TrEMBL record:
EC top class named in words: hydrolase
Protein name (database record): omega-amidase
Provenance organism: Vidua chalybeata
Cellular-component GO terms for this entry: mitochondrion
Catalyzed chemical reaction(s): 2-oxosuccinamate + H2O = oxaloacetate + NH4(+); 2-oxoglutaramate + H2O = 2-oxoglutarate + NH4(+)
Amino acid sequence: FRLALIQLHVSAVKSDNLQRACGLVREASAKGAKLVALPECFNSPYGTQYFKEYAEKIPGESTQKLSEVAKECSIYLIGGRSIPEEDGGKLYNTCTVFGPDGALLAKHRKVHLFDINIPGKIQFKESETLSPGNSFSMFDTPYCKVGLGICYDMRFAEMAQIYGQKGCQLLIYPGAFNMTTGPAHWELLQRGRAVDNQFYVATVSPARDEKASYVAWGHSTVVNPWGEVIAKAGAEETVVYTDIDLKKLAEIRQQIPILSQKRCDLYGVEMKK
């Protein structure tokens, strides 16, 4: 099946972002994509100072638009970090998924908050405004089961391993790595998660805006279960297309059967809730 990653140029005007995103979703559907993903923070600038201002409830304006366009195009639509979600007085970094009938299939709240301090390069603390999610998020399609993470979640190998144990064959991480961590780790982490678990990994970033307060690395990418990069964007706004070959995934797992050769008598990773 065909996967499309929309590397969107994000402005400060929410309505413009929504209109542009929906237009590119329609374009991707017209080119045969059955599963379409938007980037983290696709309808607002990324930064702790913006989260409260742009926050919405779910359902709300942005998710209603995503539901409508998913139904119109009869696709599975991953809404990136759809919005900073407001719920019960707390804010979450939340990704929504809608099916071909427009129904909400999954809602992933970012589990690992991005709190880092690299002296002389970048300091960022999501926990100043956001609360963490506390659950894994998966959804079924006629093609395969898909697992979700958001950006920083990708650094935690245990989370990806759980998704593999639960039968996911594709992991999608809407993300916005920056100009320090992006060139160092963006592709490396994706290839690691893919080859360790023998599944496809896709990441979808906003396009790079050098004038933004937080500059995203871009380079939305798809990695196959052999650890090979099979599709990759540059820094500009674009749509990345790739065909997900589940027969290749099955062949790789048969050739190197690591999933059945794990020494569960010596070690293990488990989902607690």
